[in-house]
């Protein structure tokens, strides 16, 4: 999705969304596999260490040679049945946000996983603000510290 232009660069937010139907599974049972660190690791394909509170550490070592990712928990909401965390490879500068949510349907429970890179929008400088001055746009500078 193209959001706008910063100078001559196009700003793009990347997003990947996957839905998985668990036929006949109640949302409470599906939530247990997301909320339990060991079962979450089995599901993600590695060994997870997580402090399941906002701001808590998140770390996964993938099976085989797939490496690892580090990050933090943004949200762990049992009532809404939603887990959100940020992660990145240790050698990368940019993190992505992963949200796992559950939705009850007549057929069972849908597990939705959405991974986005929203920090890409903050990595640009000079986003035009049209119509502020008659002789051209001014800019709002968003800078990552």
What low-confidence regions span 5 or more consecutive residues with pLDDT below 50?
1-8, 121-145
The appropriate CATH architecture is 2-Layer Sandwich
Strand content: over 45%
**Helical content (DSSP H or I, runs of 4+):** 10-25%
Walk me through what this model shows.
- There is one protein chain.
- This protein is mostly beta strands.
- It has one domain (15-118): 2-Layer Sandwich (Alpha-D-Glucose-1,6-Bisphosphate, Chain A, domain 4), CATH 3.30.530.
- It is 12% helix and 50% strand.
- The chain is built from two helices and eleven strands; from the N terminus they run E-E-E-H-H-E-E-E-E-E-E-E-E.
- The strands form three sheets. The protein has a seven-stranded antiparallel sheet.
- Helix 1 packs across helix 2 (37-44).
- The longest helix is centred in the first third of the chain and has 9 residues, at 27-35.
- It is globular, with a radius of gyration of 19 Å.
- Residues 1-8 and 121-145 have low confidence and may be disordered.
How is the topology of this model organized?
Blueprint: E1 2-6, E2 9-12, E3 15-23, H1 27-35, H2 37-44, E4 46-50, E5 57-62, E6 68-77, E7 82-88, E8 96-104, E9 108-116, E10 125-129, E11 138-141
Short note summarizing the structure:
The protein has 145 residues and is mostly beta strands.
């Amino acid at each position: 999705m193209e959001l706008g232009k910063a100078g001559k660069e196009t700003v793009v937010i990347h997003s990947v969304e996957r839905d998985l139907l668990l036929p006949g599974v109640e949302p409470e049972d599906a939530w247990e596999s997301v909320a339990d660190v060991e079962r979450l690791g089995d599901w993600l394909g590695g060994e997870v260490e997580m402090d399941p509170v906002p701001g808590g550490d998140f770390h996964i070592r993938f099976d085989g040679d797939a490496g690892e990712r580090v990050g933090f928990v943004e949200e762990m909401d049992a009532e809404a049945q939603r887990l959100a965390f940020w992660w990145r490879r240790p050698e990368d500068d940019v993190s992505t946000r992963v949200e796992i949510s559950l939705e009850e349907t007549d057929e069972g429970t849908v597990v939705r996983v959405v991974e986005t890179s929203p920090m890409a929008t903050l990595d640009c400088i000079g986003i035009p603000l049209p119509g502020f001055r008659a002789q051209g746009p001014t800019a709002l500078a968003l800078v990552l510290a």
